[in-house]
Amino acid sequence: MSVKSWMVGGLALMTVLGLTACGTTPEKETSEKQEAHEEEHHGHEEGHGEAAEDLAQVEMKLPEDAHAGKETEIEVKITHDGKPVTDANEVKFELWKKGASKDEHEKIDANKGKDGVYSIQHTFAEAGEYKVMYHVTAKGGHVMEPAETLTVKP
Ligand SMILES: [Cu+2]
């Protein structure tokens, strides 16, 4: 068995296991591993459509008016079968400046609010385009969507 096929097998296995390690980035990731992580995310999205009714539904709300140096609130609302999810296992936000490398991504644990809302307060140091995505583990599944763009004004 070649190293490559071993990696492909490992990747498939990780996908099957539900990407429990998705929120934890090792200190050093090779570019190959980064690609693998991206593929994981893709495989994950495809899974969405099929088993969507079992997964928690997540709606992200980005601030409409974000300014550098000013505290900004980013939140998600999590529901399951139309009811707010107040017992999510893990809710994280991943933020990075557009084009930043994977190890510059910031991962921040969200604070639990009321009625299935989980949020962070974040101050962006500089203006620019940022990417924001969430990682939610709740009701026995992991939910995430491709990153959304947030424009931070000066
Ligand atoms: Cu994730």
Automatic annotation (TrEMBL):
Signal sequence residues: 1-21
Query: Per UniProt, which keywords does this protein have?
Result: Signal
Alphabetical list of InterPro entries matching this protein = Ig-like_fold, YtkA-like_dom
| Gene3D superfamilies for the chain | Immunoglobulins
- One Pfam family name is YtkA
Give residue ranges for domain YtkA-like.
55-135
Q: Where is this region: Disordered?
A: 24-55
- Bias-annotated ranges (Basic and acidic residues): 26-51
Stored PROSITE patterns = PROKAR_LIPOPROTEIN
Report the protein name in the record.
FixH family protein
In which organism is this protein found? Kroppenstedtia sanguinis
